[in-house]
Amino acid sequence: METQSENRAFGGTQGVYRHASSTTHCEMTFGLFLPEEAKDGPVPLLWYLSGLTCTHENAMTKAGAQAWCAEQGIAIVFPDTSPRGDGVANDDAYDLGQGAGFYVNATQDPWAKHFQMWDYIAEELPALLAETFNLDMSRQAITGHSMGGHGALTLAMRLPGRFRSVSAFAPICNPTASDWGRKQLGAYLGDDTAAWTAHDATLLMREVGFDGPVLTDTGTADQFYELLKPEALAAAVSDRRQEATLRLQKGYDHSYFFVSTFMEEHVAFHAEALYRE
Amino acid sequence: METQSENRAFGGTQGVYRHASSTTHCEMTFGLFLPEEAKDGPVPLLWYLSGLTCTHENAMTKAGAQAWCAEQGIAIVFPDTSPRGDGVANDDAYDLGQGAGFYVNATQDPWAKHFQMWDYIAEELPALLAETFNLDMSRQAITGHSMGGHGALTLAMRLPGRFRSVSAFAPICNPTASDWGRKQLGAYLGDDTAAWTAHDATLLMREVGFDGPVLTDTGTADQFYELLKPEALAAAVSDRRQEATLRLQKGYDHSYFFVSTFMEEHVAFHAEALYRE
């Protein structure tokens, strides 16, 4: 693993690291903020999964999360959203291929070789973080934005016991019924829609739910509102009687101005779960 | 004036606006965050002047200032750092020409026609803001980063009564004695160094000082420390007995991770001055 940069921030360190991934068969880059407390002992870890077109960098520089994570003594990791590089399959569209991994393990060509983002986030990266940094892996939580909100919700529900809490900013809630989902799940997983259901937060909420608190925020002026389908997740949450807070925020859109506005509350929400005995 | 974008943020609005400037003879773009309170009455205004290579956008998306300005009910404006466009003079170096206006009125060709950033910030933009937005122009404060810290300090000292407080992040403190300064002041103002002294915060501190509180932060690990010369400003402040807090922050560098770390304290510092009767 190679250190790309380390900047002092909010009393801790904002690092950027690069490593050869055995899961995605390419070099992967991630950002990790470690609060000051990591010098003295392991700290809890919050995952932030980003949305379409993003790298590890967008949220790291624009979401304002470090201020609140420093206050709470929590580390936050910013993984990339896909494999990358000249040898990695891609597509001209912004919503398929590099920058658009959708947090699944692709089974279809030309994607299968590199696009193994589920395993990368669920297995390889946590193992690397655990062995390299001063993290308490028994205290993890997960959040994300848009496609990353989809990733956060699906990972949280399908890895019971891994995350104590899950939240999302403007998540894609029901990708099997959305143009943000059908296209990508079809490309990565094939035409058999049975394989898609494990990657749909609404369907997973109906099937398995989450053993912990859930928080989502979506802006009422989100320009992609119809693609996100918060109403589908809301119905599933209600039907299941899932412990959850689903909020619609008046006038907010899909941007990082929206994400940063509510970041303090999301971090506080996770801190409460992470510091519970 | 044309609205480029408006995003709801922290209960207020982050706008980006573009207008034809009579001072710089080109189209100029600026960002303005208005807190929720601006709906009900005029709010105080904080200026944020950016550093080399920046546009209006860098601090607007990376400094995390809106969270704290919203909390304090203060507007913050993010001007561009120079005139821009195909017809505007430029230089291949990152530190001269577009993105590097240095907040002076150029007198030398090829710069003189467009590079009138002092007048743009001191006169044209405040007049435009005052007539367009719900701002209390009797309550203004100013801050900035690096070249923008130089701009903030020199504007504050040379416009007595305009700003109630001035702060700076890693400011260029003594440009007449630095490679960040001599090159640019020479190019824009000519070889007669007498014209440079009005644009040197250390010399102005010795000559006129500032009628109000001054706050600066500089990182001890700033990679441009030798170019900034905080020791020169510190000496001038001490000799003058200027009301000031000059801080060196251990381990911090020149990046926006540094700026965002101390933004809360800078905004609180200005709020105290802005809300004083």
TrEMBL record, chains A, B:
GO terms for biological process: formaldehyde catabolic process. Signal peptide: none annotated. Keywords: Hydrolase, Serine esterase. It catalyses: S-formylglutathione + H2O = formate + glutathione + H(+). Serine hydrolase involved in the detoxification of formaldehyde. Belongs to the esterase D family. It is an enzyme of class 3 (hydrolase). Gene3D superfamilies: alpha/beta hydrolase. Transmembrane segments: none annotated. It comes from Tritonibacter horizontis. One of its GO terms (cellular component) is cytosol. The keyword Secreted does not apply. This is S-formylglutathione hydrolase. The keyword Hydrolase applies. Its EC number is 3.1.2.12. The active site is at 146 (charge relay system), 222 (charge relay system), 254 (charge relay system). One of its GO terms (molecular function) is S-formylglutathione hydrolase activity.
